[in-house]
Write a structure and sequence with these properties.
Blueprint: H1 3-6, E1 9-15, H2 43-49, E2 60-64, H3 68-77, E3 84-88, H4 94-108, E4 113-118, E5 122-123, H5 126-140, E6 145-150, E7 161-167, E8 174-181, H6 186-195, E9 198-208, H7 209-219, H8 221-232, E10 235-237, E11 240-242, H9 245-248, H10 256-261, E12 267-272, E13 276-277, H11 282-288, E14 297-299, E15 302-305, E16 311-314, E17 319-322, E18 327-331, E19 336-340, H12 347-356, E20 367-370, E21 373-381, E22 384-391, E23 399-401, E24 405-413, E25 416-420, E26 423-427, E27 432-435, E28 441-444, E29 451-459, E30 468-471
Parallel strand pairs: 1-2, 1-4, 2-3, 3-11, 6-12, 14-16, 15-17, 16-18
Antiparallel strand pairs: 4-9, 5-13, 6-9, 7-8, 7-9, 8-12, 10-11, 18-19, 20-21, 21-22, 22-29, 23-30, 24-27, 24-29, 25-26, 25-28
Helix pairs in contact: 4-7, 4-8, 7-8
Length: about 475
């Protein structure tokens, strides 16, 4: 085994959060890491691209089952073809996710170093970050588990803190970890900043797979045992690795901080002077975004008058704000948020109320993405629903039927190949086809442009669970 092989760093991106504080843009069906909030790429894509280069292997993405096709497509968009996408059947916090990734890496080489990071953090100085990773990788070979502490710029109450201990010999930025502190109040945060001993906890870690597994065996053996069984019994599905549900559901829900970082004697911290944010609120996004002369951030069809230090975002809807300061206004196709910037952390409480009221807008967007493209509800009423379907080139829906509804498909653009019972029909632009209740059917795009179809549903029950799949290119028969 060559030294170059041993020193490879495996980027591991954790993409399990829902980002409810950035509602109504971020929702469980399409969370913040999948949105382009600061650049033309999504936060996930920007995170993955930080780990590109000769010192890195192909990445591992740990995500939930519902986002698998969205993430696979976003990886393809940036030219990442060989990533391992590890599917958690149920969310179990960062410690089980890191255990699963460590076990996966150790199957090939327990001496490989992992660089674990969240998919939804922003770092603007990529090369500087990679330099810190290189320094951390050297410490990792000395059996250290290294976290990244960010030099604080203000008394932030939304972050955890790390107290630096003694400087580590022969390391430029490495320190022992003296203590971890949960999110402090403002007075305590101010005192910590003034002391000069504290760093923001970024949630990034660097360690050898073998080191992490040894520490988990020591401090949380039951968790490691359950995750190992779930990994050993995983199944490969297309480009995904499916962790075994019955074993993973037994795993405790615990963060890596509580499970390992606060217990191990091998903890170290790199004091990193990086521009970093976890974008935990609309105020946090305003803080790191480019602003106009009045301190405003505006995106979309936004018109401002006598407004200052505000964040205003609108999807397609003309949005005007007059005579307000320090506010957040976010308009989507099906929801509007208005809040004072200083109260933007409380948006999570609004989402909790929406969930309690069983409002689907709490967790789902009007536009729903599928591996074949997406659909969007245009209108609905008693016994009818109208949707727009956009099918990607070469993609097709499952072979399916419905027990409670019939459908009309009208082709707006492109060419549709429609399976209806024993027939296979080509439907051109401005043509339509009727699918009676109970008829076996499928829609495919055989053309070279996206296929746009208006679907008119009618029947006694129109929910998505009235789909009986008999065949599916994307293995969605479960």
């Amino acid at each position: 085994m060559s030294g170059a092989e041993i020193c490879k760093v495996v980027p591991v991106i954790l993409s399990g959060g829902t980002g409810s504080r950035l509602w109504p843009v971020s929702r469980a069906s399409f969370p913040k890491q999948l949105w382009p909030l600061l650049t033309e790429r999504s936060m996930l894509q920007d995170t993955v691209l930080r780990g590109i280069g000769s010192m890195f292997t192909d990445p591992i993405i740990v995500c939930n089952n519902d986002h698998r096709f969205l993430i696979a497509e976003q990886l393809r968009e940036i030219g990442i073809e060989e990533a391992q996408i590890l599917l958690e059947p149920i969310g179990r916090n960062s410690a089980p996710a890191i255990a699963a990734a460590s076990l996966l890496v150790a199957e090939k080489n327990p001496n490989h170093t992992l660089w674990v990071m969240a998919a939804d953090a922003v770092v603007t100085e990529t090369q500087k970050l990679v330099d810190f990773v290189q320094e951390a990788a050297i410490l990792a070979k000395k059996k250290k588990i290294i976290t990244f502490g960010i030099q604080p710029t203000r008394p932030e109450t939304g972050y955890g803190y790390i107290e630096k201990g003694n400087k580590i010999d022969h390391s430029r930025h490495g320190f022992e970890v003296k203590a971890f502190t949960e999110k402090p109040n403002l007075q305590m945060a101010s005192q910590m900043i003034a002391s000069g001993r504290y760093l923001w906890n970024s949630g990034m870690f660097v360690f050898m797979a073998e080191t992490m597994l040894q520490e988990m065996q020591l401090h949380t053996p039951e968790l490691l045992s359950s995750v190992k069984t779930a990994i050993d019994r995983r199944k490969t599905d297309l480009c995904f690795e499916r962790i075994h549900l019955e074993d993973f559901i037994k795993v405790p829900d615990i963060s890596i901080d509580y499970a390992i970082a606060e217990k191990t004697e091998h903890m170290a911290v790199i004091a990193a002077d990086l521009t970093w944010s976890d974008i935990g609120s609309w105020d946090g996004l305003w803080d790191i975004s480019n602003k106009d002369e009045q301190g405003n951030v505006s995106m979309g069809k936004v018109f401002l008058e006598n407004t200052h230090n505000s964040y205003v975002r609108s999807e397609d809807v003309v949005t005007a704000v007059n005579g307000l300061d320090d506010v957040v206004v976010v308009v989507t196709g099906d929801a509007v948020l208005v809040t004072h910037r200083s109260k933007s952390q409380d948006v999570k409480k609004i989402v909790e109320k929406l969930l309690a009221a069983n409002q689907k807008e709490a967790f789902a967007h009007n536009r729903c993405y599928r591996p074949w493209g997406y659909y969007e509800t245009l209108a609905s009423g008693h016994r009818f629903q109208v949707k727009q379907l956009v099918v990607s080139v070469g993609a097709q829906l499952s072979l399916q039927k419905h027990y409670h509804r019939s459908e009309h498909w009208v082709v707006v653009s492109g060419v549709a190949e429609v399976t209806r019972g024993d027939e296979v029909i080509l439907v051109q632009e401005n043509e339509s086809v009727y699918l009676p209740l109970g008829t076996l059917h499928r829609l495919k795009n055989p053309g070279c442009i996206p296929l746009v179809v208006i679907e008119i549903q009618s029947g006694s029950y129109l929910a998505e669970d009235d789909i009986v799949r008999l065949e599916d290119t994307y293995n969605r028969l479960d």
